[in-house]
Amino acid sequence: MTAVDILLTMGRFIIHWRNRKRIAWDDIFNGIALLFLLAFSTTFQLHISEKYKANLYELGLTNHAPTNYHSSKSRNMKLDVAHIFFFWLAIYSVKASFLALYWQIFKISTRFRVAWGVLTAFIALSFGFTFLGVFWRCDAPKHIVNIAACEHRSMSHIVSFTTAFCALNVLGDILMMALPIAMLNSMPRMQKSQKLGLALVFSLTLLTIVIEVARVSYLLSKDSIIYTSQRALISILEPTIAVMICALPCYRAFLSWKTKSIPRPKEISLEVPE
Fold it and tell me: Which cellular compartments is it found in (predicted)?
């Protein structure tokens, strides 16, 4: 699926350069999100294999200790922290891309500019809280890669941070989905087929919300101590799907451009009543 993200993002750059002869901020943030996704996928894959073996050994399910067990645990702790950072950087880069896209489409509306400003502030604060919160995942920034401190965290501490990150992410997704869908009704000169296409793309955010809730529910379950293939899949699925959805709006515009009955996106009037 990561290969699909690469192709879609590359296609987005090609389409927009062909149509607009420039690369906009929404394209740039999409590209940044892809880079963070690749970094996340790499660190996650490196981390999960040794972590799974270590879990089996610690639970007594195998008598074969991983090679260089103690140094391996230390390295995996660093990889764990790295892939968490890259995960959230990818997720919030996708949000930044959508915010930039929304501004391009609806910026002539005073009401939208106000709502966009409030939403952007909320997303920025959510990102700041989440990014800095990772440093306190093991009680204090100085213990961020301290194995002993992380292993002795209370369950309430884990639940509090995990649910807080999830709540901010989900609420941000809901607001980002609702804002453009509401604004589409105020665009009388945009054809209905185009409105439906954009609304469908924006509504795909529901998929990432479902995956995020499922991911957190699984992380907090009693079975999450072992890195199963199911946990690995659900952990890597969310940022992968998010980057994929991020690249889709330009393909709706491309299809409209190819259809003679629908004018090119750059010729669409986006007048919105104040």
Answer: Membrane
